[in-house]
């Protein structure tokens, strides 16, 4: 039986969260409970919502959690832009994160589209 761990989007979002944790270690200490915390929550929210959505029985429930994951990716993307502008991330770090986020967002959108098509064709029970 396939689980959320078999999904490439989940695997890549775990990699993204790991990268965010590594990069935010270098941030100023005064950001620990501000930007560091926000970025880490956004980054970990993506794979957690993919996992929770995949565990749901009906596609409609799965879609709900995938949309939350998309929102978290957009939030993280915005945080990366801010951190690059204020000098917490260098150009190469920001570019690498932005590439990961873009890839994950594309996969999430493709998965959402696929599930919507299945729902429109009368297929509802998940997996």
Report a brief summary of the structure.
By secondary structure, the protein is mainly alpha-helical. The chain has helices at residues 8-24, 32-54, 59-85, 91-120.
Account of the 3D structure:
- The protein has 127 residues and is mainly alpha-helical.
- The protein contains four helices and no strands.
- The longest helix is centred in the C-terminal third of the chain and has 30 residues.
Radius of gyration: 16 Å
Q: Tally of extended strands?
A: 0
What is the residue-averaged pLDDT? 94
**Uncertain runs:** none
Shape: elongated
Task: Tell me the distance between the termini.
Answer: 9 Å
Topology:
Elements (H helix, E strand, L loop, with lengths): L7 H17 L7 H23 L4 H27 L5 H30 L7
Helix pairs in contact: 1-2, 1-4, 2-3, 3-4
Key descriptive features of the protein:
127 residues; mainly alpha
